């Protein structure tokens, strides 16, 4: 059967499943739309959280980032995993006990201020919109390759599918759709990994295969990978990082940024009681671990397979001729995500690090005149089955999995945006007397508008789209996470302190990111853009969210202690959130 037909069957079948679930689980009330009626089982919720958490960034990009940077990029794995642990242990149970629908509602009530609620809404919308651009772009990448359409058409198809099941079902429809999407994406991720691990190491468990012996060479797989890439001028795959401070801050920024992103937090509001929120967190950790333990192996094996594809006889031998390149390279070239330029006109693919000055003499001796092969890191997971010559049904499966990962997180983000607009802005601010029917209509309209906006930005990303996810994590890390932590654990923090802290942390982070990524022009400076020599203490703009969070905490504590204490009833509210008695409807019983 033709590969396109196989892909169409897998992708079309998964879409039909999602839409069918949405029709079955149509939301009939605001409670259904925002928190799925509050009656989701912990195991079901755990699987939905897993799908929500494992976005296109986890499914498609994380392995590609680790493959490109090796140990240095393991910060993504540590940061995202650590962020979930922070969320599960320090935030989710207490927020569930508070018994509200949204994160801004908690911040508004805890800090007894509509302004605090509106600031939280602004942070949530900006962070979620910037983050959802990556999910829609990931869907476009998968569509452009596997369904042989351009990325814009792929985005439109993805938007239509999300529109049907998210606008119709709300959180109720999204929850059960995400359970199905988790099943699709985890099977799609692990089956190719098992095949490839068996091929390269003889070990069927990819996490163990990563530390096993490479069958063909007889040396450990990581040692073989280090050997082949260093001989081509690339940095050791297992090399340590030079700037430890930046690595720690980047990991911390990812941790507290992901813990502060609201699209996962709201999932913990969907269970009947606090104990179920804790069990949901436990089950979600199990489901997430299946992919996160596999990702480093997928990354390493994909990088090794790519190198040996281009240098089948080893680095000392000849690279493959361009005219004899494998079919998978030809297919991905059509998307523009793989490019070749024959700089020395020998008809072969020279792939090496031409930015390494120490390797320049070796390259010149071989007659090379620059690297000729470039690829987008995001393709490695999607192309892995083709690189390893796996069966067509595996390729179709991973196509469906990549799309499931992108759509599941996009739906969660869009629901967070919709809830913030309809529940926190309209009902909580501009029209508090709106009827439940009117609020449900407003939620669906705002969801539809958010989908249109996300689709447009995915097709026409800002000039800084490559770093836009860093902006999302930085905003959440510097604004929402500290506010949530202080709201739960510190009774003395008042409304003035919380608002001042959020604005200070957010402002400092935005200024730093925009200046050092070159998005602001500062008279008299023309070399600040992304230049490590100019960074404050060597701190990357991608790592500054952690510093923004520290600023938030410091300003909030200083201002709160210089102004009046919160009202007694607010201090009692904090006590009721943290301890069993007095928490009303949301108590764990």
How would you describe the overall organization of this protein?
The chain is mainly alpha-helical. Among the domains are: 370 residues, Sodium/glucose cotransporter; 38 residues, no CATH class. It is built from 23 helices and two strands. It has a two-stranded antiparallel sheet. Helix 4 crosses helix 17 and helix 17 runs antiparallel to helix 18.
What's the short story on this structure?
With 589 residues, this protein is an all-alpha fold.
List strands and helices in order, with pairings:
Elements: H1 3-24, H2 30-35, H3 42-53, H4 56-69, H5 74-98, H6 103-110, H7 114-146, H8 151-201, H9 206-209, H10 221-230, H11 244-260, H12 262-265, H13 274-292, H14 295-310, H15 327-333, E1 338-340, H16 360-365, E2 373-375, H17 379-387, H18 392-430, H19 436-459, H20 468-489, H21 495-516, H22 544-562, H23 568-578
Antiparallel strand pairs: 1-2
Helix pairs in contact: 1-8, 1-18, 3-8, 3-13, 4-14, 4-17, 4-18, 5-11, 5-13, 6-7, 6-20, 7-8, 7-18, 7-19, 7-20, 7-21, 8-18, 8-19, 10-14, 11-20, 11-22, 14-17, 17-18, 18-19, 20-21, 20-22, 21-22
Quickly list its features:
single chain; 589 residues; mainly alpha; Sodium/glucose cotransporter; 23 helices; 2 strands; disordered C terminus
Spatial ordering of strands, largest sheet: 1-2
**Which homologous superfamily in CATH is the superfamily of the domain at 3-301 and 389-428 and 437-467?**
Sodium/glucose cotransporter
CATH class of the domain at 3-301 and 389-428 and 437-467: Mainly Alpha
CA radius of gyration is 25 Å
Tell me the series of helices and strands, N- to C-terminal.
Answer: HHHHHHHHHHHHHHHEHEHHHHHHH
Total DSSP helices? 23
Which blocks of ≥5 consecutive residues have pLDDT under 50? 581-589
The rounded distance between the terminal residues' Cα atoms is: 56 Å
Globally, the shape reads: globular
CATH architecture of the domain at 3-301 and 389-428 and 437-467, by name, is Up-down Bundle
CATH fold-level name of the domain at 3-301 and 389-428 and 437-467: Sodium/glucose cotransporter
């Amino acid at each position: 059967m033709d590969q396109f037909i196989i892909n169409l069957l897998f992708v079309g079948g998964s879409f039909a499943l999602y839409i069918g679930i949405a029709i079955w689980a149509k939301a009939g009330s605001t409670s259904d739309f925002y928190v799925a009626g509050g009656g989701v089982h912990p195991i079901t919720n755990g699987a939905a959280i897993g799908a929500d958490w494992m976005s296109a960034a986890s499914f498609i990009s994380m392995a590609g980032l680790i493959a490109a940077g090796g140990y240095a990029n393991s910060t993504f794995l540590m940061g995202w995993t650590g962020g979930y642990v922070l969320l599960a242990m320090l935030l989710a149970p207490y927020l569930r006990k508070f018994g509200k629908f949204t994160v801004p509602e908690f911040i508004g009530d805890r800090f007894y201020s509509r302004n605090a609620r509106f600031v939280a809404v602004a942070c949530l919308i900006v962070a979620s919109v910037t983050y959802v651009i990556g999910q829609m772009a990931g869907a476009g990448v998968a569509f452009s390759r596997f369904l042989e359409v351009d990325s814009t058409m792929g985005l439109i198809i993805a938007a239509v599918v999300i529109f049907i099941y998210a606008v119709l079902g709300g959180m109720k429809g999204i929850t059960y759709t995400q359970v199905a999407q988790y099943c699709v994406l985890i099977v799609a991720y692990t089956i190719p990994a098992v095949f490839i691990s068996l091929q390269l190491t003889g070990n069927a468990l990819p996490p163990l295969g990563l530390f096993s012996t490479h069958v063909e060479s007889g040396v450990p797989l990581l040692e073989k990978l280090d050997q082949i890439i260093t001989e081509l001028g690339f940095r050791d795959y297992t090399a340590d990082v030079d700037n430890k401070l930046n690595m720690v801050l980047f990991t911390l920024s990812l941790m507290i940024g992901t813990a502060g992103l609201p699209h996962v937090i709201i999932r913990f509001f969907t269970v009947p009681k606090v104990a179920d929120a804790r069990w949901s967190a436990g089950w979600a950790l199990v489901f997430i671990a299946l992919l996160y333990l596999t990702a480093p192996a997928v990354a390493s094996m994909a990088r090794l397979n790519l190198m040996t594809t281009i240098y089948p006889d080893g680095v000392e031998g000849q690279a493959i001729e361009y005219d004899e390149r494998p079919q998978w390279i030809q297919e991905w070239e059509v998307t523009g995500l793989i490019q070749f330029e024959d700089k020395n006109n020998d008809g072969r693919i020279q792939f090496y690090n031409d930015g390494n000055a120490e390797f320049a003499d070796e390259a010149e001796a071989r007659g090379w005149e620059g690297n000729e092969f470039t690829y987008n890191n995001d393709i490695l997971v999607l192309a892995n089955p083709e690189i390893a010559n796996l069966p067509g049904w595996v390729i179709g499966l991973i196509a469906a999995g990549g799309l499931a990962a992108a759509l599941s997180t996009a739906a969660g983000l869009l629901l967070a945006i919709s809830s913030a607009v309809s529940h926190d802005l309209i009902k909580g601010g501009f029209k508090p007397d709106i009827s439940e029917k009117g609020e449900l209509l407003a939620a669906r309209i705002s969801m539809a508008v958010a989908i249109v906006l996300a689709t447009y930005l995915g097709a026409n990303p800002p000039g800084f789209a490559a770093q836009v996810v860093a902006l999302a994590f930085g905003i959440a890390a510097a604004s929402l996470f500290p506010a949530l932590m202080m709201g739960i654990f510190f009774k003395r923090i008042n409304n003035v302190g919380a608002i001042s802290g959020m604005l200070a942390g957010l402002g400092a982070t935005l200024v730093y990111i925009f200046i050092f990524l070159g998005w602001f022009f500062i008279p008299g400076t023309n070399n600040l853009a992304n230049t490590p020599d100019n960074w404050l203490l060597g701190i990357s703009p991608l790592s500054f969210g952690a510093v923004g969070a520290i600023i938030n905490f410091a300003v909030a504590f200083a201002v709160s202690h210089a102004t009046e204490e919160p009202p007694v009833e607010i201090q009692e509210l904090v006590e009721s959130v943290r301890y069993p008695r007095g928490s009303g409807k949301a108590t764990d019983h």
